[in-house]
Amino acid sequence: MEEKYFSCDPVACNAECCRSISTKPVMTFGDFLRIGQHLGKTATDIWLESGNVAVVPLQDREGIAALAALALFHNPCPYLSEQNKCNIYNSRPLGCLEFPFTAIEDGHVDIEGYHSLDCMKNVRLFPAQRKLCKAVGRIAEEETRLDIELFWSENLRGCIDIFSQMQYEEIARRALGVIANGKVSPAMAREVRISAGEMHLLISSKGYDSIGVRELCNFLEPMVYAIKREQFAEVFRKAEKFKHRYKKTSDELRKLAGFFNSF
Ligand code: SF4
Ligand code: SF4
Q: Helix, strand, or coil here: 216?
């Protein structure tokens, strides 16, 4: 099949990558700050309104999941307009700036969640896209380092034990309790209910022991967000006092975003 250069046409594809849970961006604290600044809100507001988490299994300890990163709610993304435009385009998260350049560049176009994206099939990057992708990658690394210093020192990224069906059910029970109190957005509450319901059905039909821990993690993400949301909000509030640490990377990013807009 003929190879072509990557180009993005969100109207033609119905902005598929902004709608799917599986392509949700992981977020740095800097991402939350920039979206907040764009919308006249705090990073904590953005976390409370549109946050999510990424939960991944620890490779070396089967049966244990780890809360790996902050993420954005994404089913669909709350910043996607009805016309398939990004309402925060100039402040979109690093993961959105890089997407799908990193996956194309690293040859990861076949990973789960990307299969259905026609734009990624048999494409290559313009040299300028490759260069910019690397520059954004460097900024993401720097902000991840800042996040570790500032954000993860609170030991929130602990393990979530899911050794047994009983522990899963406890997480589901707690998450459903949180949404019953009206603490999360209606979209996230729906996500928690669906995940808890689908997981329950899967366990009933296949048996807990035959379900892979990775699959289990996908179901856990909205539930873990619901459970940890308030605890994380406290850390966000404290971290806002140190937002000046993200000025340098945010300034660099603004310059790059201008280039990205031209693609
Ligand atoms: S990156 Fe691909 S899936 Fe996403 S909006 Fe652009 S063309 Fe559509
Ligand atoms: S922030 Fe913008 S680019 Fe990123 S997923 Fe949402 S709508 Fe798409």
A: helix
